[in-house]
Amino acid sequence: MMNIGRRAFLGGMAALPFAARRLDAAQPAGAQGDQRVEEQAETGTQSAYVPPSAPIIDCHIHLFDKTRPQGAPYPTDLQPGLTMLPPRYRATVNGTGIVGVIVTECSSLAEDTLWVLDLCTSDALFVGHCGYLDFGTPNFVKFFDRFRSNRMFLGVRYRNVAGRSFERGLDRPIFVADIKTMTDAGLVMEYGGHPSVILKLADKLPPAAKIVIPHYPRLNIRADQLESYMTPLKELSTRPNVAIKLSGVTKIVDGRVVGDLSLLRGWLDQLWDLFGEDRVVYGTDYPHEDRTAPFLNVLNTAVSYVKEKSPAAQEKVFWRNSARIYRWQKRAPNQPSV
Q1: Cβ of 256: how many Cβ atoms within 10 Å?
Q2: Domains: count for the chain
Q3: What is the reported pTM?
Q4: CATH number, domain at 112?
Q5: pLDDT tens per residue across span 121-167
Q6: Domain range spanning residue 269?
Q7: Is 42 within a domain?
Q8: Whose CA is closest to 322, among 98, 91, 37?
Q9: What's the pLDDT tens digit per position in 196-237?
């Protein structure tokens, strides 16, 4: 594990606001079924996305349907009537090397977790779902066994929505007991809050409990926040069952898109040095990353970074680590298996 100092951290972050390029939609993706698809390139570039040699399990996407009678509580900033359903995702990733996907819940409604589980069951590209459970409430008791009986249910992604506070919940014994019930069953706890809160969570759970942190590549940490982030983050990196997602790689800094890997690599290297090749999984954050850049740009940035690692490390990040952590099961012939 690398000792990350103040100078190294700031060196990796400081250039970001000043060199972002505007991303323009360029030529469409290659023909369906091709093994190579044209990148929707940043202005001034001629690069093309080439899939890695290792198959990819995408560990972070969202599905929703705003045309349903009950609508979709999340995302709130996208137009009414928008749908993000399995056929659209399947068409988007065709030819990219993505052969499987885990859906991550954004809704706090238990019925939406059930709805996504049904969608996943109907399409073999989908290997699982991290849904939502309200820890410390009667709804946990009501839905946990039902969710767990579905082999596609892989864990819970918790978000602070509708007045919920994960940090305050950790001070309630029943809240923590419900998380422990879930993780004791081999399911994954996902939370993307401040590392001090995640460290508090890890301290309250058995060492074997699996915790996955999404979107840390997206963090924009100011110099005056450095110690408050890095001190608990370094401690989390010593916990063998805490992993991070390489998701949210392309990001917005001071209102401008940053997708240039040369500007992002400093922070990515620091996360890599902390957690290592055994505790990083990959996720596209489809379709939310479309807010920052076209899908193939986002994919190309992250995949290009992982391609700099050894073939063994690429396999770990793209599928082996997620197979170990989430315990998803192969459902299609082109999906790998341990």
Answers
A1: 15
A2: 1
A3: 0.86
A4: 3.20.20.140
A5: 999 999 999 999 999 999 999 999 999 999 999 999 998 877 889 99
A6: 54-326
A7: no
A8: 98
A9: 999 999 999 999 999 999 999 999 888 999 999 999 999 999
